[in-house]
Design goal:
6-stranded mixed sheet; 2 domains; Nucleotidyltransferase, domain 5; 519 residues; single chain
């Protein structure tokens, strides 16, 4: 079993390790840690520390390191020869913030996560200083959102100046794991770096203006941006000694979980769209040229291959689904049966599913809206239909700004196993939809590690060729758009968009007149 490659995914709720054998085209090891249950000493719920003020979402970075060591220890105890791993790549939850001093110690015991909404004021201040959203987009390719890293840094500068003063390096999550694996390498890469709202993915340059707005010395605390298709060092000697890695094992630059989710679903050529149905919902596609959304609703990101990955992210997705199952005491199969008995379009009843602050559209203080429901309409069947349609319509309403016509949608995440969700995606997006089986971002990381190692060692292979044997489709759930449903959803999409715009004070058509046309 020669030539193994490993991928780590350090996500919000857990950590996964995947090891692949490219020669045989197979996954040889998979293991995962769930923070809540496997590391209860950190007291998390869904990977987040509890009893914090509203809007605050943080975790202890030591928990991530302990999770990584746990899965590596299990790998060492397995039959897989750990010494034959040639390269490791790390996928990490995007936009989080980890701060270190010059010695590599944490200067703040907790890192803010992507779903921390406590930096709303910082976003407003930075945007005003820049001269508005359009000016900010010119500087960093994106607007300032609470999910991004720049306002998290500014929050530290404003509210924890002593912590900021002691900080020598500001990392994203996967950079911190790379720092641990290499024994001290401090670098970033374009994929995750472009989600900081400090580094422009189009020009591939830091914004001196925004950096200086946050703090005059911030540039000195930001690591160098290195190419994403290179390695950054070897495994640290103490990890070689403790776990049995080869001292020649390389660590590649790594990237964000969305960048590696693309690789893990074979989204490495134009026309393929990946939709991830998890705690949040994302839709993204690979592009040969950068796309900068003039409104900043589509995130302008680089991918992990030297190209670009425009991405839509909605904060609300599985939360509404999970809550309705809990409230009504039903399971996944029951939900499917209930929704099958209802009609697409829900007779004009619409749920705007903003249960928590929404990222796209940018409504940090949002709340859900039920439109078109009579007093006797809050029944299990109508609510279940409203949940699945509301979340997918919300995702589509942002996606329609993306300059791409999907020829195939590859669906991942827990809800990809649902035929109702897959069929509704196909109908709403008007494209073939197929669930992708496998190990998601962790698999993408392992595939990327193989691609980078082979390129650096005289065996360059197209990434698409490396990926192809590992991308497995659930053909039993492949869905084509149903013409009758498409006709209904064309009207419903207009209604949803108009209602969303009216609620946000952005104008739009009269949603009451549009609802009357739904029948």
């Amino acid at each position: 079993m020669k030539g193994l490659y490993a991928g780590l995914d350090v996500s919000t709720q857990g950590c996964k390790l995947v090891v692949i054998d490219v020669a045989s085209g197979g996954v040889v090891f998979v293991d995962a840690v769930q923070y809540d249950t496997d590391l209860p000493q950190y007291g998390t719920k869904n990977g987040v520390r509890q009893n914090q003020p509203e809007g605050v979402s943080e975790s202890d970075p030591n928990m991530w390191i302990e999770a990584v060591e746990t899965v590596i220890s299990r790998l060492r105890a397995s039959d897989v020869p750990i010494a034959q791993i040639r390269c490791i790549s790390v996928s990490g939850q995007q936009h989080g913030l980890v701060s270190l001093d010059a010695s590599g110690r944490l200067t703040r015991p907790y890192g803010k996560l992507w779903n921390d909404f406590s930096t709303l004021e910082e976003c407003r201040v930075l945007t005003e200083k820049a001269g508005g959203d359009e000016a900010m987009i010119r500087e960093v390719g994106n607007t300032q959102r609470t999910g991004y890293t720049a306002p998290k840094i500014f929050h530290m500068v404003r509210h924890e100046p002593d912590v900021y003063a002691k900080t020598a390096t500001l990392f994203l999550v996967h950079n911190y794991i790379n720092f641990y694996l290499t024994g001290g390498v401090r670098v970033m890469e374009p994929g995750d770096g472009s989600g900081m709202a400090l580094w422009h993915p189009g020009t591939r340059k830091w914004s001196d203006k925004v950096i200086r707005m946050i703090a005059p010395d911030l540039a000195s605390k930001l690591p160098e941006i290195r190419p994403s298709d290179e390695t950054i060092g070897t495994v640290a000697p103490d990890l070689v000694k403790r776990f049995g890695f080869s001292p020649d094992c390389r660590i590649d630059a790594g990237s964000g979980d969305n960048m590696y989710g693309a690789v893990g679903t074979g989204n490495v050529e134009p026309g393929i769209v990946t939709i991830s149905l998890g705690t949040s919902g994302t839709a993204y596609t690979m592009m040969e040229k950068p796309y900068i959304d003039p409104k900043g609703e589509i995130a302008a990101f680089c991918d992990s291959t030297g190209r670009w990955l425009p991405l839509l992210c909605v904060s609300n997705l599985a939360n509404g689904y999970n809550e309705i199952l809990k409230i009504h005491g039903i399971g996944h199969d029951q939900f499917e049966q209930i929704v099958r008995k209802t009609e697409p379009g829900n007779a004009g009843r619409i749920l705007i599913p903003w249960y928590v602050g929404e990222r796209t559209p940018d409504v940090p203080q949002a709340s859900p809206v039920y439109f078109g429901f009579g007093l006797d309409d809050f029944t299990q069947d109508k609510l279940c239909r409203a949940v699945v349609e509301g979340h997918i319509l919300n995702l589509y309403d942002g996606f329609r700004r993306m300059p791409v016509k999907a020829r195939e949608i590859r669906v991942t995440g827990g809800l990809s196993k649902s035929e109702i969700w897959c069929q509704t995606i196909a109908d709403v997006f008007e494209a073939e939809a197929v669930p992708v089986e496998g190990e998601g971002a962790a698999l993408g990381a392992a595939l990327h590690a193989a691609w980078v190692w082979q390129k650096e060692n005289g065996e360059p292979t197209p990434l698409s060729d490396i990926v192809a044997p590992f991308v497995i489709f659930d053909e039993s759930r492949r869905k084509n758009p149903i013409p009758e449903n498409v006709r209904v959803y064309k009207k419903q999409k207009v209604l949803f968009s108009a209602l969303s715009a009216r609620i946000r004070g952005a104008g739009g058509e009269d949603p009451f007149a549009l609802r009357a046309k739904m029948g």
